[in-house]
Amino acid sequence: MNMQKPNVIQEKSYGFSLHIIEFCNVLNERRQYVLSKQLLKSGTSIGANIEEALQAQSRRDFIAKLSISLKEAFETKYWLRLIRDSKTASLQEMGALFSEIDEILKLLISIIKTSKAT
User: Fold this and answer.
1) 100, CA 20 to 30 Å: which among 14, 39, 43, 118?
2) Looking at residues 91-113, what average pLDDT do you find?
3) What is the CATH number of the domain that holds 64?
4) Would residue 1 count as lying in a domain?
5) With 60 as the cut, is the pLDDT of residue 116 above it?
6) Exposed/middle/buried for 47, CB within 10 Å: 0-12, 13-18, 19+?
């Protein structure tokens, strides 16, 4: 039996990926294929790179993978802003995606800073 403590960033990024997939399905229904593809790629890449970081072979490798995840999170926020501001989807339709990505960004920045300091 594995009694490992839950990893907050891992869980939040996975949940966010699921929400991104759901939202991209809405965009596809509106024939917004390019925006959907870009958002899907960057939004799901956050969690994938976190998973890789958790298997890092060194602290340097861990920081590098999380830094990639951070870049993907900033890119994802860009696409979300673009979708909102182009009125492709309303803020209400986008649900909690903005608050989720902001929370993920804060967590990643904090983890990277702490990892660099130790």
Assistant:
1) 118
2) 95
3) 1.20.1440.60
4) no
5) yes
6) buried
